Each structure stands twice: as C-alpha cells, then as structure tokens.
Amino acid sequence: MFTLEVMTEKDTRELQEEIRNLAKEKNAVILAHYYQRPEVQDIADFIGDSLELSRKASQTDADIIVFCGVRFMCETAKIVNPNKKVLHPNPESGCPMADMITAKDVLKLKEQHPDGEVVAYVNTSAEVKAVSDICVTSANAVKIVQKLQSKKIIFIPDQALGNWVKRHVPDKEFVIWQGFCPPHFEFTAKEVQKLKNMYPDAKVAVHPECHPKVIQMADFVGSTSQIINYATTCDAKRVIVITEVGLKYTLMKRNPHKEYIFPESMNYCGSVYCCTMKAITLPKVYETLKNELNEVVLPEDIIEKAKRPIMRMLELS
C-alpha cells in the first residue's frame, strides 16, 4: 500500500506505471486539471482548464472517467456522460466558491429578476446548473455573454469574474452574486506591487477570479489555458503569474527558457494554492481506479436539466 508520506521517486514511477496499465486494462481515461500535483498530471491522458476538460469529457469513448479535479468538475463529466462511470479520487475535494450559492438562491434571483438570464460559472454544483440558463468558464464568459439576447444578466457565483465580464459587456445590466475563490480573491494589489518592484522587467498575468484591484495591475487577464499561452509566448523573459501555483509545472514544460514568478506569501497555504485540488494524490488515484471507488452519482432529473446549460455553452463557445 502506497502512502504519500513514504513514497520515493522510484515508488512514484512504479505507481504511475501501474495506474497507466490499469487505465488501459479498464478502458479508462484520466482527466486532470492544471492545478493538480505534478505527479498526478503526469499520468493524465488529458490536462486542461474547466472548458477544455468539459469538452474532453463530452467527447470521450472510454468506459470509465477518472477525474482529478474538484467535485463540480466531476459532476460536469457525469452530466455530459450519464451512461459512463465517473470516479473522483477524493470526494471531499470540493470548491468553496461553488458552495457559496444554492439552487434555492438562484430560484430567488430569478423571481426577483424575471427578465434576466442566469449565467452560471462552471464552478457551481449540478443542482445550481440545473436551474441556470447557460454555463460559462473564465475562458469563454465574455464571448458567450456578448452573444446572449437578454439585456439583463444574473451572473453567479463569482463576483470577480462577473465584474470582469460586466466591464467588457457595458451594454447589458448585471446582477452579480457575491461569491469568490478564496485563494485568488484574497491576493492583494499590495502584494502584486511588491512583486513588480522586485521584478520590474516582468509582465503580469492574472486570472479573472482575482480582486478587481489586482486585475487592474495586469498586463494580461485570462483563464488558466489563456495564461499558459500568454506566459509562454510573450516577449518578456519573466512573467509574474497570479493564479494557482500548480500551473508552474505546465509552464516550465511548455517553455523552460522563461522565469515564472508565483506569489509566495499568499496565506496559510504559502501561495495562491488550492488545497482541495492538492488533496488528490497518486495513491488515491490508484485505489480509486483499481477498486472503482467514489463513483459520481446524480439524480436523473438533475442530469437532464443541468446538461442543457452545459451543452449550450459548448455550442456557443
């Protein structure tokens, strides 16, 4: 039995090989978010952000999907693949932002604003998606809201992303729920300025879940995948990256000739660090796949209702 505390580099390689063999034997696909641990990313068939993973989940012909991400991502994979077995290596890995709004909250907003269209960030539960009109990710939110017919947008649950979209779609009225991503939103402009002072030649790339004051200091604002493209191809030799520190592994693989500077004094985790993402470990992936544990199960009516806003997003994006 492998445990994270006692695994050597040799143990890691051996366990990764066992996981890949199991996946082949069971016709399983392993999906992982960019914020996962490096050793987990290395055994994934596909690594991506929320939009990329949603697309991949909807296209797979595997019998089993092992989703290395937080709960709402696994639910999304189940919604677009209701007849497949979706496994979550750590069912306790939730998303604090997603927990900041309920389906009841959304229904109340719809009553208060009957002329509004509910735009749900993909970082929401299946129940919330089921009462929403369309889903978005940080990569496509602006473009999708621009395409909507409604002049009033009820944006849930992320206030930072909602305000970012509002800034780019000034002809619409916005009702924005006051949810947030703790690691992103709690990082301050003062800390960004400190990094800029330390590295005056660096460009600053920021995720739109960050506080508006931080976003104002950015040279580039975009989703995880968009930050990867910018940071690895821009003309600067140094890039200050204000998003989850797990992204550094992908950046270094894509272009090791640049320096990627991540904040190091963020909070008790030590950086812009998603503790729930990092709770998924290689041994947990192995045990989950080997014994087909932690299957994601959702009511049929929720799957049916939640699939509509997700598929509408995929069609428009």
Give me the number of helical elements.
16
Query: In the CATH hierarchy, what is the superfamily of the largest domain?
Result: NadA-like
SSE sequence, one letter per element? HEHEHEHEHEHEHEHEHHEHEHEHEHHH
How helical, in percent, are the residues?
A: 40-55%
What best-fitting shape do the alpha-carbon axes yield?
A: globular
Which fold name is given in CATH as the topology of the largest domain?
A: Rossmann fold
Count of extended strands: 12
Please identify, by name, the CATH architecture of the largest domain: 3-Layer(aba) Sandwich
Strand content: 15-25%
Largest sheet: 4 strands, parallel
- Overall number of domains: 3
InterPro entries: NadA (IPR003473), NadA_sf (IPR036094), Quinolinate_synth_type2 (IPR023066)
EC number: 2.5.1.72
Binding site for [4Fe-4S] cluster: 95, 181, 274
Coiled coil: 5-32
Short description:
The protein is an alpha/beta fold and 317 residues long. The chain contains 16 helices and twelve strands.
